[in-house]
Fold these 3 entries.
Entry 1:
Amino acid sequence: IDELSRGGGCLACHLNYTDQSAGQHQAYIAGQKAENLLPAMHSSLDVKISNNHCFGCHSRSGRISANYEGWHETLLDESEINEEKKYRIIQDKRVFEFVSADVHHTAGMECIDCHNDLEIMGDGNRYLHEEDAVKTRCEDCHFQTKPNLITYGELDSAAIKIFDLRKYDHINKDMIKGKDSEIALMNTFFENDTGWMVGKNSGKIHPLNPPASICIKDKVHESLTCSSCHTAWAPQCIGCHNEFDENAEGYDLLENKFVKGEWVEYVGNFLAGKPTLGVRENETKSIEPAIPGMILTIDLASFNSSDESMTFHRLFAPAAPHTTNTKGRNCKSCHNDPLALGYGRGALTFDLNKRTWSFIPEFAANKYDGLPEDAWIGFLSNPTSNQSTRTNFRPFMLEEQKRILTVGACLTCHDENSGIILRSLDEEFNNYVLKVSEECVLPVW
């Protein structure tokens, strides 16, 4: 198991080698599998699943494994690197730059300390998207009131087997159940009105701290997910172009052989910053981080000369960046930030005299839809379509943008910790703005 491992089945997660067994295995392979080099020590199949087991599959696309440890992929070549501590070159030669690690990683937690077997190996249900199978929630561990509990004797047979294999010593203590999932979190226990988590590999005990008071202070922001505020940064790639090179050698995965001709991808920029925010609509509405799922062109004419068309897509995707920080976003980073609203990077300004907002984008407009290269939607406009990789996930509608920017206008003058702003959290905002001073300048739409 290394940074290139992308296996399937049991071995993808449960295979482990000691230094001795790995050495014997490599000698056997290097010796053309000679009989006299047969390994005397076998690799183990066990429940010690490290972050390395996750990395091979989860260091691409959303790059969760890399992000969790603080690493952001760049377009640099390894020959350009001279600051070893700032950069990391992984086995496939991609170069990553350190931004900031997830607070849970800094505390010594591994992927499986939060994620469980039912999420990874399946719970018997079919899901359209893999993220729908994930039942772990921040609120499972960071709870306000006493959580639902379960005892060892109430566990099912599979859970008991895992509990025993991990040799937990809290067999006589109540364990916590997932807030929504009702799944037993076997590496937790509840004692003296406090929750605790045990590292599945390390054995380190972590306190399960309640959410900060500001997170639960008001009902105004109850639709915001924890990650919408507490994501420090997210990977964002823009300007992707694909064309067919008939002279390049490519690999046909269906025929399992090298062939002449290959689709080549050209990338514009890899960026790291606060994520855009989007709206997930299921039974309830929630605000979640979003990143460019694909802002790309496909040159069909390069593959078929009789087809002169160019396919263009601008689709954002819901994201779980795994770059959690303790402090969270401030008010302006949502209400006064064009990237958060979906407009892209640039200068978003409220003119107190004209009582209007204006936006100057940082990136030039894409010739296919007229939007800035990193944008999800146009400035103060309704989306032209869903523009998302999920049918239940969308950008902010115009009326939602106006509501957000009305608060942003207030923050232009008032500090977010001022009494005026804090009081606005205690009642419905549309009613609150009716009571503001005559000196206050609100937007004219």
Entry 2:
Amino acid sequence: APVNQAPVANVAAAQTVAAGALVQVDGLASSDPEGAPLNYQWRQVGGPTVALSSNTEAAPLFVAPSGLMQNTVLSFELVVNDGQLNSLPAITNVTVAASAGINIAPQATVLASSQNSADGQLATKAVDGVISGYPGDYTREWATQGQRTDAWIELRWTVPMIVSRVVLYDRPNANDQITGATLTFSDGTSITVLALNNNGTATIVNLSPKTATSIRLTTTSVSAATQNVGLSEFEVFGSVAP
């Protein structure tokens, strides 16, 4: 009599998904040499625990976790059975992209090297949630009083924050432009920021998630036409540290 051979578990390739996405892990390519119907058994073997729609379906679903501050790998193992023998396990990985978090800048106390109080161009306007400035609404931006390089603006929180992204909006007028800057964190580390978009659109600075109670932006170079350096908006994405 022929000897029954073990089935083969076959899972779909690794994938990268967004936080909160509906994800499917797929074992439909699994097979049995004798063509016997298969029983499926999934289990999660790595990463934050998620709920599979079924542990015994060929291609179950789950919802990717949210609020992750770094890319996180979830691992799933599939074993199939032909009624007599189990297959060797097969593993597939799902990478969940980090969440940027919420804009925590409005929760901070704002300090600056100077501000144009006479025209309402205060440091606090850099975190008011409104991306505007001269030649639009100049009262919604932060502008210094005649400062160029070495001007700074600092956000301070009363509790530690895990920070994953900074988004900077230069003053939208054509003359005043930050062409180089430094972001300095409360732990003393710093990173270099290149020229901000001169039309006032977002300049995104992605970070390896880090814990900070303050962030200071200091200008290191400006355009030749700059008279009063500043920002339309200073956004920081993250969450309260656990």
Entry 3:
Amino acid sequence: MKVIEVETFVVDGGRRPWFYSAVRTDEGLTGYGEFGSWEFPRGLPALVQDLAEFVIGRDPTAVDKIWLDMYRATRQAPYGATTMAMAGIELALWDLKGKSLGVPVHQLLGGPFRERQRVYWSHLGSYRAANPELYGAKPLRSMADLAACAVEAVEAGYTAFKTNLIFPGEPARLISQGFLGPEHDQELSTELIRHAVTQIGAMRDAVGPEIDICLDINFNFKPQAAIPLARALEPFGLYWLEIDSQDPHALAQLRASTPTPICSGEQLETVRQYRPYFELHAMDTVKVDVQYQGFMAAKRVADLAELYELNIAPHNFNGHLATYQSLNLTAAASNVRIMEADHDAAPWRDELVSAPPTVEGGYIAIPTAPGWGTDLNEEIARRHAWGGQSGHWNR
């Protein structure tokens, strides 16, 4: 079996583009991957095509060898979009390998460790603040509307959810990667901290003490600002406060300052970047993104985290194929705490795959079909091709 073609699809995900890859073989078998992040709707698919020369004409089952060849060839421009493009090829190769052997990918790495995976409703209220019409949802005009979103998650069977700092109104705003909320220059004023206490307090009152609540502040605040926020939220028993940081010492400073658990890591790729954070025990829960760095790289991060007595929580805010890829990771790793899943999504998301996942009681079943367990519907992907001018999810 030899690879004869690599194709990419840039699909309208509603708020931002989703990226898919297809690696085709001379035996008629196709492997699919969902990869990357929304920032590069033109550049990332082009990078995948630049890297296609490393796989065309080769045996697709030598996945690690092909990945290593790409890594060595791009060593002067590692990480970021380069690693995401490599993931676009590598993920499709794992799907091919699983299909060729008739087994799910997780069985190739010793799984499954579990039959189902707990998930949390991510970006609760956040997407609706930016674009409620896309989801047929009510605008968030009051804190009561935001609390109602939390109740909706519980009624849908979730036992955990994650939100951002949201400011109901006409229109609603939020502090996320889109910076649509109040100007803050990475500072948290007393007013903003009071708002966070009001928001999380309203959500906690709405769902009670048994539901796990996470708050994500992304890259928006440095430890000097995040420390008083974490301390102010201690009475609400957050499942975690999530923050991205490029300095392991700064993150360790935050973690040492509060009993509020800290989650971080989605900004990192491969064990080379995670290792200094693990050595400092700078986080309580490790975010790891399969779509950003590829499957085996993510598995190695999980294995390294196990050595440091840390559990992972896959970062997953893409389409359903990404969910299946992340589920295969959780099935192949022993140290999994919970997994991210977006409940609010583009109305055509289910049509993009052959078998959409189902959330039941806050869990998704581990896939058992060969490869990832679902296939991209190429016709639907082409029908919903991305036509935006930017990959920014809040535009």
